[in-house]
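Bench log. Compound arrived from synthesis this morning; before running ITC I wanted a structural hypothesis for how hexadecan-1-ol sits in the protein. Inputs:
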Amino acid sequence: MPQLEVISDIDFRSEAYKDAYSRINAIVIEGEQEAFENYQRLAELLPNDKDQLISLSKMESRHKKGFQACGRNLEVDPDMEFAREFFADLHRNFQEAAATGKIVTCLLIQSLIIECFAISAYNIYIPVADDFARKITEGVVKDEYLHLNFGEEWLKANFEESKAELEEANRQNLPLVWRMLNQVEHDAHELGMEKEALVEDFMISYGEALSNIGFTTRDIMRMSAYGLAAA
Ligand code: PL3
Ligand code: FE2
Ligand code: FE2
């Protein structure tokens, strides 16, 4: 298996690896915590889908516990303050949207952008992870596809009336993803993950999601380009 060669190159116990892991691990823990809170909030906003959304939120708190165990296993103390700062803009945008009943914006932020970000990061992490974290991450990523699917199905069913708000929410939030990727580029590299691969995987997942919802290829090209110049 070629993967084993890659793994043997990485020293999971080195100070440089653990230092980078203290931030990446915190980001993932914070991301899962925010996802938990966001699905709880969505359950209040969408009473018809309440049970399903509560069940998604419970998966997020399991993911958080799993990644906390990954950090403990490597004897890394996650830098949670860094991670809260990392998510601050997306967090604020979600809160503001929820407070004004903008469900479409909330779904775009959580179920499309954050889930696609997580799916691409986890898929790229799996082949370079330590054995313990790899098993955890493989289990988590399966759930993230269900979360993405929830958003896709809801937005597809309400496409015409959601379209304008989706475009606006994309314009506001996609540039934040590119900024966040730039912010983790160095630490991700230390863990064996390349930014180009993260960007490519994100673009594929996000583009497919927009296509499943009902956007044309032309719309997708235009929407995906927002803020990319800065990446
Ligand atoms: C939603 O279910 C989870 C949200 C988590 C967002 C994670 C974003 C991760 C970006 C950092 C890239 C490195 C990932 C390493 C994987 C352990
Ligand atoms: Fe999750
Ligand atoms: Fe999720």
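What the model suggests: The chain has a mean pLDDT of 95. The radius of gyration is 17 Å.
ITC booked for Thursday regardless.
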